[in-house]
Specification:
Layout: H1 8-22, E1 23-25, E2 32-34, H2 37-45, H3 48-58, H4 63-77, H5 81-90, H6 92-102, H7 107-121, H8 135-146, H9 149-161, H10 167-183, H11 188-196, H12 199-209, H13 224-233, H14 237-245, H15 248-258, H16 263-276, H17 282-285, H18 287-296, H19 298-308, H20 314-331, H21 335-343, H22 346-356, H23 361-375, H24 379-387, H25 390-401, H26 408-421, H27 432-448, H28 453-467, H29 473-476
Antiparallel strand pairs: 1-2
Helix pairs in contact: 1-4, 3-4, 3-6, 4-7, 5-8, 6-7, 6-9, 7-10, 9-10, 9-12, 10-13, 12-13, 12-15, 13-16, 15-16, 15-18, 15-19, 16-20, 19-20, 20-23, 22-23, 23-26, 25-26, 25-27, 26-28, 27-28
């Protein structure tokens, strides 16, 4: 390679030879494995990194050279912190960025570049020769960003998103999105670069235009373009605003309406909604966006998602949790959305979810908050909640939390909802049995947590409401 730098044929065959020396696959798992470490270190000590980088620079337009060079470099650096460091110092990061940028149309180059990126910058790769698994990966991530990797990868995504969607184009997009997912986490500058390059708008268009098939509803792993969009929006006010300006709210609502029968589509839409509002929550800091969501039909869409997918498996539990969180953000501090939610049957739907998912504390907590908000709009909503079975659901929750010191927040949420549910006028529609069960549960909770004011105060309020005017209450409360 050093003696014949001008010959693309020599460089191609040399890179291919190195690739075949170092490359092996686990027959059972299909994972890439480094064959014999001694060979890799001998090659590195002989200047293999520098020679391959020089070949990539000299023959930048030759896709086969780029493909085999990336393959050999990936084989050399897989699982070795020391070799990742040497590769970074030898200019490998800059070389692979140039390969990605210069061969946008080549699936083979993009595939091997993805492997190389994975070896160089993925912090999750186990490094057997070092206790530090992230230092050089983070440095290479910075190098890649400075070399224009983010812009190059976004260009690949945009290029193939604008062409007819063949299996080959889709695969290139997947690889590019996966590379973006490696570059963006823990690097705010790369996150901003991706947003500036147009990744937010492109990925948003891909996500909302995708036809999420019903038969894919049991797939737990998100698609690469969804993961990439999550990473771009996560804790980035700048990218969140970009998405909102690009019509993300309206597009997500439309997606939920058009694919109402697809649980996966509903789950993805709710997850993107939440990533939009994570950290710098737009619904809280900018009422305009909250109103836009309400006007676009988000309340109806989310309520329908909860109503239409009541199945019991884990996939639908994820949908229910995500939809409940979005609904909470929609009604939090927004009276118009609160009224709309009640009219759409959100109270009944959320109570049904509470009863169906008794074992899921995350769903229970967010459901308490939604019910708490909606029943305080007016007495009519409290009546609807009681008739929907909210009292029984909350009493069951109180019994589960009694005596469990690890679930004080849940107990506080449940008893607070019960206090508001049993206010004047509403308690009258409760049956004697409901009142007896509620009083017994509240007293048991108070006795179990005497020292916790956050439990005692709402519990006293609930007891006052439940026992007022009833002679039987004394015996129910245990004197």
């Amino acid at each position: 390679m050093v003696r014949h730098p001008e010959s693309a044929l020599v460089q191609r065959r040399a890179c291919g030879a190195l690739h075949h020396i170092f490359y092996s696959v686990n027959a059972n798992t299909g994972e890439f494995l480094r064959s014999i470490p001694q060979f890799v270190y001998r090659a590195s000590n002989a200047g293999a990194f520098e020679a391959i980088v020089a070949a990539m620079a000299r023959h930048s337009g030759n896709s086969v050279v780029q493909e085999l060079a990336c393959a050999a470099l990936a084989d050399m650096t897989l699982g070795s912190e020391k070799l990742v460091f040497r590769a970074g110092e030898a200019g490998v990061v800059k070389a692979v960025v140039a390969a990605v940028s210069g061969h946008v149309e080549s699936l083979d180059v993009q595939r091997q570049a993805h492997r190389l990126f994975f070896c160089l910058i993925n912090e999750t790769v186990e490094r057997k020769d070092s206790t530090s698994t992230t230092t050089n990966s983070l440095e290479n991530k910075v190098r890649a960003g400075n070399a224009g990797a983010v812009e190059a990868i976004v260009a690949v995504i945009c290029r193939h998103a604008c062409t007819p969607q063949s299996p080959r184009n889709i695969k290139v997009q997947e690889l590019a999105c996966s590379m973006l997912c490696m570059l963006v986490p823990c690097n705010a500058l790369n996150q901003t670069r991706a947003g500036t390059a147009g990744a937010v708008e492109t990925l948003l268009a891909l996500v909302t235009a995708t036809q999420w098939r019903v038969e894919n509803a049991d797939e737990h792993q998100e698609d690469d373009h969804v993961r990439a969009l999550f990473e771009l929006l996560k804790d980035s006010a700048e990218n969140q605003v970009r998405a909102a300006k690009a019509g993300a709210i309206e597009a997500l609502v439309l997606m939920m309406r058009m694919q109402a029968d697809s649980a996966k589509a509903q789950t993805v839409a709710c997850a993107v909604f939440l990533s939009l509002f994570r950290s710098n929550t737009l619904f809280q800091s900018n009422p305009e966006y909250q109103s836009r969501a309400g006007t676009a039909g988000a309340v109806e869409a989310v309520t329908a998602a909860l109503r239409e997918h009541p199945e019991s498996d884990r996939t639908f539990q994820d949908l229910e949790e995500g939809a409940c969180r979005v609904l909470y953000l929609l009604v939090l501090g927004n009276l118009a959305n609160q009224i709309l939610a009640a009219e759409e049957g959100a109270i009944e739907v959320v109570v049904a979810v509470m009863r169906r998912r008794e074992e899921c504390n995350n769903i229970q907590m967010i459901a308490y908050r939604i019910i708490h908000i909606l029943i305080n709009v007016n007495v009519k909503n409290k009546t609807r909640a009681v008739r929907a079975g909210a009292v029984d659901a909350v009493v069951s929750a109180i019994r589960r939390h009694t005596g469990n010191q690890q679930e004080m927040e849940e107990a506080d949420g449940a008893i607070t909802v019960l206090r508001h549910l049993t206010s004047s006028g509403v308690v009258d529609i409760m049956t004697q049995t409901q009142k007896a069960r509620a009083i017994t549960a509240v007293v048991a909770l108070m006795r179990a947590h005497l020292e916790i004011e956050g439990v005692q105060r709402p519990a006293c309020g609930a007891l006052r409401n439940l026992t007022s005017g009833f002679a039987e209450a004394k015996s129910w409360a245990g004197d």
